[in-house]
């Protein structure tokens, strides 16, 4: 029996292969978009893993520190540290900003961490080069994704920092590389005004008769002194004693300290459900559009190839070939085209993924699901061509 699918593929293999490559590029874009979504989720989880915290204590009524601004006094951690079940507690600040290095800017999340080394919450757990922060000021540890190297000097607003260590996969939920600096420096960079703003504020304060009372010596100096210092942080990272239930430890902080506390599960839900929800919906819609475009392309190609073999199909019907056999041949051709396209798409997605500015994570489960969807779309797309083939009159084989 003549295999129409195989015969047609061998007869016009160049056209078939190039069509499969074109379809594969489209499938590669689809797989890459799915990888971008997986990368967003992976970045969010990496942010939580790298913090080394079991609880995040933030300002009451906020979703901070990653989803909303949060501001706490920096001495509050002592009360948290005294609670039962708390093994370690550390202040931390987060600020996403442009970091100047040489003649270029790097978008990064600047993290202020307390002294204590890699075992303290908030510190990078490992380095791939250099050393940890040992000085109280003007040192930094950068993620390699920032493009910085050991010995580089970076500028954060008014101060210059030396890069003394490098780490890897320390990124924000948006994929921006992290730069770790001492907490005091981070507080100054985030909460203190620049020199011009301080000068203007001093002028306004001095001109205010309520604050500059001649009969109260020292009042104005005390007020001016508070304008050049800060005691605020964004959050307190809490590590619990092994075996302690996070909800049990969080309950007294919420009740007695009047603060918001998030467990690991709650914080992960916040990052995935709220921070990247819009991006996820956009990527999902994009995937649906790409799937429909792929199905339309496969349907058009198979339909065109089938119309080009009308006489051969008529001959098959004339010699008594069953419709089921003809439909199976067209279906094989559609599925074969889909498999070639999927193989090409998987290869190109893996090839160009490292060059994306954001993290692209291609997981085997998505690959398996993608293969199933491609085969299903090819089956559906072949129905139009099968319907056209079954309506061919056998008389066309003899020119009727």
UniProtKB/TrEMBL annotation:
* Keywords per UniProt: Cell membrane, Membrane, Transmembrane, Transmembrane helix, Transport
Q: Where are the transmembrane segments?
A: 16-37, 283-305, 326-348, 368-390
Which membrane topology term applies here?
Multi-pass membrane protein
The protein in question is named ABC transporter permease
UniProt domain MacB-like periplasmic core: residue ranges: 22-254
Classification of source organism: Bacteria, Pseudomonadati, Verrucomicrobiota, Opitutia, Opitutales
Q: Domain of life here?
A: Bacteria
Give all residue intervals belonging to the ABC3 transporter permease C-terminal domain: 285-394
Q: Does the keyword Chloroplast apply?
A: no
Q: Where in the cell does this protein reside?
A: Cell membrane
Pfam families per the record?
FtsX, MacB_PCD
Per the record, the major location class is membrane
Organism per entry = Actomonas aquatica
């Amino acid at each position: 029996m003549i295999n129409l699918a195989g015969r047609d593929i061998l007869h016009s293999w160049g056209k078939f292969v190039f069509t499969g490559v074109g379809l594969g590029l489209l499938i590669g874009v689809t797989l890459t978009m799915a990888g971008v979504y997986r990368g967003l989720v992976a970045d969010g989880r990496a942010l939580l893993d790298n913090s080394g915290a079991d609880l995040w204590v933030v300002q009451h009524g906020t979703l901070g520190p990653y989803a909303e601004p949060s501001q706490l006094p920096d001495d509050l951690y002592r009360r948290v540290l005294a609670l039962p079940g708390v093994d370690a507690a550390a202040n931390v600040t987060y600020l996403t900003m442009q970091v100047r290095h040489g003649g270029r800017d790097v978008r990064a999340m600047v993290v202020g961490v307390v002294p204590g080394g890699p075992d303290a919450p908030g510190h990078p757990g490992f380095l791939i080069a250099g050393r940890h922060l040992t000085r109280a000021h003007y040192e930094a540890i950068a993620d390699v994704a920032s493009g910085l190297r050991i010995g580089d000097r970076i500028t954060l607003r008014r101060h210059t920092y030396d890069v003394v260590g490098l780490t890897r996969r320390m990124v924000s939920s948006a994929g921006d590389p992290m730069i770790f600096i001492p907490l005091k420096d981070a507080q100054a960079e985030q909460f203190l005004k620049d020199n011009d703003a301080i000068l203007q504020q001093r002028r306004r304060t001095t001109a205010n008769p309520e604050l500059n009372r001649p009969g109260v010596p020292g009042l104005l100096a005390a007020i001016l002194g508070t304008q050049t210092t800060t005691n605020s942080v964004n959050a307190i990272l809490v590590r619990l004693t092994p075996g302690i239930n996070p909800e049990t430890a969080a309950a007294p902080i919420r009740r007695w300290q009047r603060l918001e506390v998030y467990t690991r599960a709650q914080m992960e839900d916040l990052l995935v459900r709220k921070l990247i929800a819009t991006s996820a919906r956009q990527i999902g819609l994009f995937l649906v559009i790409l799937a429909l475009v792929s199905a339309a392309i496969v349907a058009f190609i198979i339909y065109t190839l089938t119309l080009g073999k009308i006489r051969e199909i008529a001959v098959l019907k004339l010699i008594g070939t069953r419709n089921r056999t003809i439909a199976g041949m067209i279906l094989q051709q559609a599925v074969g085209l889909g498999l070639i396209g999927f193989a090409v798409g998987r290869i190109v997605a893996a090839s160009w993924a490292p060059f994306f500015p954001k993290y692209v994570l291609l997981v085997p489960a998505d690959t398996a699901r993608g293969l199933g969807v491609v085969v299903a779309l090819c089956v559906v797309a072949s129905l139009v061509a099968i319907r056209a083939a079954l309506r061919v009159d056998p008389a066309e084989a003899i020119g009727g």
